[in-house]
Amino acid sequence: MAATQGDASRGSQADPILLTLFANRFMSVAEAMGRTLQQTAISTNIKERLDFSCALFAPDGDLVANAPFIPIHLGSMSFAVRYQMKLHKGNIKPGDVFMTNSPLAGGSHLPDITIITPVFDPDDDNKIIFFTASRGHHADIGGILPGSMPPTSTTIFEEGASIVSFKLVKEGEFDRDGLYERMVTRPAQYEGSSGCRCFRDVESDLRAQIAANHKGIQLIHNMIREYGLPTVQEYMLHIRSNAEQSVRTFLKRIAATHSTTLNSIDYLDDGSPIRLKVDINKDTGAATFDFSGTGAEVRGNLNAPISVVHSAVIYCLRAMLDSDIPLNAGCLVPVKVIIPSNSLLAPSPTAAVCGGNVLTSQRIVDVVLKAFDACAASQGCTNNLTFGAGGKDAEGKVVAGWGYYETIAGGSGAGEGWHGTSGVHTHITNTRIGDVEILERRYPVLLHEFGLRPGSGGAGKYRGGDGVRRVLEVSMPMRVSILSERRTRAPYGLYGGHDGAMGRNTWIKCEPSHSDPSAQPTSSSDEPAAPDLQKLGKTPEELELDDIPVPDRAAREINIGGKATLWMGKGDRLVIETPGGGGWGTPEEGDEGFVDESVQAGDGRAAWEARGSLAERARAQAEF
């Protein structure tokens, strides 16, 4: 390898074989970090749902490479790395590990906690050569509701612990007391809010993130021993340059085949517009993405931090490329993003943001892809379900508890030449649903139904994918919340394709029953009639519970809208029907009805086979 190292380190031209080799080596570092994190974490969010990302960053904080994790994390983590670099410039030492989740410091929303570890030159403890970072969604970090994704939050203080910067590990020493202070004590100081309801779980998962970062450091040092630092860093730059040239080539082609000016607009369910104008320089392949005309900051939590907007843009650019390159900072080099101040895409420091990361981000993606005529709208939602117990009681005392969080799949949009996919996490979520066995074993719920929602995909020459129907029953009284979009505005179809079906959330509320002595009538008209003592032949003292008549009524079905928090009683059910994807092209004769998923997918695979970037990469590795 010595000769190869020498050849690579001389001159500026990249060897195509080494370029591919290093691209995959860098990606393998991120993959190994991810496996370490999954295997050592204990929460269902990270271990089962895979709601985490790991990546490798250059000394300047730019994204170098990642594995196919969560795109919304990967595009914004560079902001977090660069913020910590500037804040602690001159005070970063071997053994330091930084923790952050604040949108002010490159965070997406508060449950996504980023752990950042500097990588030092093996021969020089004063020289940072890379950064490793991991971001994981933690199911409860405090706030006004279990699960830390409150549908009704209006300020960031209601959403849990907010940490701009904290040295979780200082020169090798783990600061547990400081972590407890920031995760439990401080969030509980705000009115109506609690600290982390299950500190042990969060602490354990954060330690797993630290271990994942350390695994990345070991692999980077191994690579340096094999090739030498100059070669490794040179090919880091070549990979970034390759991504830049790929994006420039793509934008030049769009300017030649479509137009140098692209426009699109879509709306959130509350009517807030997200407007985009793309101006492309046909000669250089540079482009300006201008979101001027986007709606003002909202009082709710659909505000999206600037880092999230950049994540959505870089994801769309990478998704539209024909070439197989790692998603990295080079994709954004030819692009200038303009975001109007005081808009919902550049909110004030105290604005609530938990929904912006998971819902508004999806709408931004739909707007970008619509501008490029790439495909019809996907479900445009992540259908965020949370439930749990604990926190502050009526007297203000903090009660230990737990929180659960999941996102639910829907339909993807169709495009020219391909049908949408049914029952899939779309675009920048890329997580998966947890196993029902794990769900029912760990939490007091029963899953009655989980399947496709036939006909919810938009009709067209190419059909949109179908959403899903998920029915959960709670086994104990608890607080349940749903945070969702596309409940009043359907996912659009393109070129004559029909819109996908809107989503719907329904609460099936059990009525009071004589078998439950704690049940109370819901209104004065629900009061049970007095028992006929003469007919029963009993005195009042001899009455039994079964003697009291109860009105014979079916359970109530209540449409709770897209964003709601409920106190559900034992036996109540929540039915979540997720949106379908939009169709593409005018429906041909006989194409209005339901199409079997195995045919709809157009890939020769059965409906139950795994799809998505993780499955595709695993399949490619198995075939190698």
From TrEMBL:
Q: Which domain of life is it from?
A: Eukaryota
Q: What GO biological process terms are annotated to this protein in UniProt?
A: glutathione metabolic process
Alphabetical GO CC annotations of the entry are: cytosol
**Hydantoinase B/oxoprolinase domain location:** 15-587
Q: Name one Pfam family in it.
A: Hydantoinase_B
| Region entry Disordered, spans | 506-548
InterPro entries named among the record's database cross-references:
Hydantoinase_B, Oxoprolinase-like
Q: Name one GO molecular function term.
A: 5-oxoprolinase (ATP-hydrolyzing) activity
Compositional bias annotation for Polar residues: 515-526
Q: What is this protein called?
A: Hydantoinase B/oxoprolinase
